[in-house]
């Protein structure tokens, strides 16, 4: 386990280093200046400004400095938002994104597990077919299509819930549902297969033979073991929430990181794009690592490679 | 009373050893067998028919509409859908009638004295949405197909070489893929498009730059298993080159996994293209893809909902049918899923 962990962290660092380097050189290639009113400045003023931000130094020196800055959490200064540091912009917007992501993940896995379990317990009945149909729909229909339709039919036509902005709990309901559809579908499908698998194992037959009640078998004996492999889908689910949040936050005008990322793409605000990219990449590799380790700890039958006795 | 069986009913059974090995069912090759299995899967067959219809419409649609996808006619802008014959059936949304802000129905066709029929309506610049939707479907499918094909070629070659030669080559190649797989896919795609500027070619390049890793891993795993088989040893003993062994002996046995993987790549490529359009990195006007159409329609969703709902239905149909079809193919082709 120790060796495996060291190896994984090593790859993590290489991956992050590569992404940071890639973003730095992209910033150098793409035309644009960090100064909002560049054409009003005289050449002499430009020189002073460049010296102030260290842009007059040779590229390798800038590169080394940039890497050093990123390590300490300094992503440079935004082009568009009146010279504010990128890290400050990102931190201010973390709250709504985190809340939305957490709500969607929570609702998504709970409903998904519930749907998967009933589908497995009522296998090959209309309950099962209905749940499977929902899962196929949720997996295939793009989240932004779903969000648009929700906004139009629930928000505009029926007028039940607010469709824009972020001013209280009722504002979070529609975006959470739109974002949770994919996790629901994936968890439900996965849970159904696992549950069916577990229900046909010997210890369930034994529990039945000993006269345990139906609910006891389903929820006390089967569910626990069927839940373990679900941890493996948490990684992909997290990635889907991350990319999903980009469009969902844009559609529902939520002041989160995703919305800022999309805005900075349309505004060519490169430092913000790069900072967010590095943040996303770091989150991504850390979550995947945590999921892998968690899986090894929770299920004693699985030992990550290199952990042989 | 005892029942007697007449003696003449008894006869000698002749066991012909030459016939006991006789094959009394037609022998099926891999593809016939797979087709039998797919055929049993109703969802896959219905999906196949619908997907085929959508693909045919993607090519026939822009031709039969009699309009160009980029012709602007501002006097005909934002017209609701109207179809000959269906316009008098009030519960269908093809009557050319719109609801204004006060909740009253009115017909822009009558108000503006428009004789033409726009089957799916027109957009803000008066372009025919029917033509644009099918043209967009064509482009979305083209991008997805190209991306899937390139992913397939690179992934198969990389995976086969890595798995077949093994040893140090495999080690180095696998370390590279391990790093690539650690990078979030859409982030790479977004960065590449920022660099290359949106267009069909740059979207395909951006999507394939790390997209092949999944395929290469599957292929490598299969090659590792297959290369230990006797027929590979026999071929090598007969003096065949590595290239011939990979191409002629290993690849045909990999066909199943390659097809399954490619079938799953196509819908995800369509989704990714639409996703890029939606965050402002899609194709430039007047070119249209399903993603850009949904994006444009979304901006006027409250006033002209049909402009988003129609392309949304088309993209959802494609996504659902391709996913179901890929599921069906996996069940039919994957030896591990055999019942």
UniProtKB/TrEMBL annotation, chain A:
Subcellular location: Cell membrane
Pfam families recorded: BPD_transp_1, BPD_transp_1_N
DNA damage found in the keyword field: no
Cellular component GO terms held in the UniProt record: plasma membrane
ABC transmembrane type-1 domain mapped to chain residues: 94-295
InterPro entries: BPD_transp_1_N, MetI-like, MetI-like_sf
Key words of the record: Cell membrane, Membrane, Transmembrane, Transmembrane helix, Transport
Regions crossing the membrane: 9-30, 100-121, 133-153, 173-191, 226-248, 278-298
BP-aspect Gene Ontology terms: transmembrane transport
Membrane topology recorded in Swiss-Prot or TrEMBL: Multi-pass membrane protein
Superkingdom of origin: Bacteria
Family: Belongs to the binding-protein-dependent transport system permease family.
UniProt-recorded name of the protein: Oligopeptide transport system permease protein
UniProtKB/TrEMBL annotation, chain B:
Gene Ontology biological process terms from the UniProt entry: peptide transport; protein transport; transmembrane transport
Transmembrane feature ranges: 44-64, 139-164, 176-194, 200-219, 250-271, 308-329
Membrane topology: Multi-pass membrane protein
Any Pfam family hit: BPD_transp_1
Keyword Cytoplasm attributed: no
Keyword Transport assigned: yes
SUPFAM superfamilies found in the cross-reference section: MetI-like (SSF161098)
Domain ABC transmembrane type-1 span(s) in chain numbering: 137-326
PROSITE patterns associated with the record: ABC_TM1
Intracellular or extracellular location(s): Cell membrane
GO cellular component: plasma membrane
Entry keyword set: Cell membrane, Membrane, Peptide transport, Protein transport, Transmembrane, Transmembrane helix, Transport
Family, as annotated: Belongs to the binding-protein-dependent transport system permease family. OppBC subfamily.
Protein name according to UniProt: Oligopeptide transport system permease protein
Organism encoding this protein: Mesobacillus foraminis
Lineage: Bacteria, Bacillati, Bacillota, Bacilli, Bacillales
């Amino acid at each position: 386990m120790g060796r495996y962990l060291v190896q994984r962290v090593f790859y993590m660092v290489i991956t992050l280093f590569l992404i940071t380097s890639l973003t730095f050189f992209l910033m150098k290639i793409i035309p644009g200046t960090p100064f909002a009113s560049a054409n009003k400045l005289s050449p002499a003023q430009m020189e002073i400004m460049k010296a102030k931000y260290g842009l007059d130094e040779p590229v390798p020196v800038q590169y080394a400095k940039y890497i050093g800055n990123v390590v300490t959490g300094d992503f440079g200064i935004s082009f568009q938002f009146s010279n504010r540091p990128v890290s400050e912009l990102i931190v201010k917007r973390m709250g709504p994104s985190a809340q939305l992501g957490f709500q969607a993940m929570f609702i998504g896995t709970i409903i998904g597990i519930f749907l998967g379990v009933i589908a497995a317990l009522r296998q090959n009945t209309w309950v099962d077919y209905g749940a499977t149909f929902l899962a196929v729909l949720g997996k295939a229909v793009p989240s932004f299509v779903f969000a648009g339709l929700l906004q139009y039919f629930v928000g505009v036509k029926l007028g039940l819930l607010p469709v824009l902005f972020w001013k209280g709990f009722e504002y979070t309901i529609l975006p959470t549902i739109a974002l949770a559809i994919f996790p629901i579908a994936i968890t439900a499908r996965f849970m159904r297969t696992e549950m069916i698998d577990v229900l046909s194992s010997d210890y369930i037959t034994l529990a039945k033979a000993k006269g345990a009640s139906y609910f006891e078998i389903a929820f006390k004996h089967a569910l626990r073991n069927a839940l373990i492999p679900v941890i493996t889908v948490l990684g992909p689910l997290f990635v889907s929430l991350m990319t999903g949040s980009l469009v969902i936050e844009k559609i529902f005008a939520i002041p989160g990181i995703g919305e800022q990322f999309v805005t900075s793409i349309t505004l060519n605000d490169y430092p913000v794009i790069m900072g967010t990219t590095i943040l996303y990449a770091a989150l991504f590799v850390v979550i995947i690592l945590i999921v892998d380790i968690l899986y090894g700890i929770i299920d004693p039958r699985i030992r990550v490679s290199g952990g042989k006795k | 009373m005892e029942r007697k069986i007449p003696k003449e009913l008894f006869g000698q059974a002749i066991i012909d050893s030459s016939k006991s090995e006789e094959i009394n069912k037609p022998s099926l090759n891999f593809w016939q067998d797979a087709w039998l299995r797919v055929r049993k899967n109703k969802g896959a067959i219905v999906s196949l028919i619908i997907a085929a219809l959508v693909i045919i419409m993607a090519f026939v649609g822009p031709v039969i509409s009699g309009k160009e996808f980029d012709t602007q006619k501002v006097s005909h802008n934002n017209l609701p859908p109207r179809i000959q014959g269906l316009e008098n059936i009030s519960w269908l949304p093809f009557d050319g009638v719109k609801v204004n802000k006060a909740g009253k129905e009115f017909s822009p066709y009558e108000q503006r004295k428009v004789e033409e029929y726009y089957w799916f309506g027109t957009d803000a610049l008066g372009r025919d949405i029917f033509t644009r939707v099918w043209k967009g479907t064509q482009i979305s499918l083209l991008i997805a197909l190209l991306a899937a094909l390139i992913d397939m070629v690179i992934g198969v070659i990389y995976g086969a070489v890595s798995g077949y030669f093994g040893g140090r080559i495999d080690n180095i190649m696998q370390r590279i893929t391990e790093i690539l797989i650690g990078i979030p896919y859409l982030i790479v795609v977004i960065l590449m498009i920022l660099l290359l500027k949106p267009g069909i070619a740059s979207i395909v390049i951006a999507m394939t730059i790390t997209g092949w890793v999944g395929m290469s891993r599957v292929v490598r795993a299969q090659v590792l298993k297959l290369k230990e088989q006797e027929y590979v040893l026999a071929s090598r003993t007969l003096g065949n080159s590595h290239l011939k062994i990979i191409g002629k002996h290993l690849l045909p046995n990999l066909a199943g996994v390659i097809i399954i993987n490619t079938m799953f790549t196509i819908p995800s490529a369509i989704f990714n293209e639409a996703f890029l359009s939606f965050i402002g990195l899609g194709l430039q006007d007047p070119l249209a893809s399903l993603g850009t159409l949904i994006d444009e329609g979304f901006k006027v969703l409250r006033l002209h909902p049909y402009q988003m709902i129609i392309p949304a239905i088309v993209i959802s149909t494609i996504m659902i049918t391709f996913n179901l079809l890929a599921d069906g193919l996996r069940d039919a082709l994957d030896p591990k899923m055999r019942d």
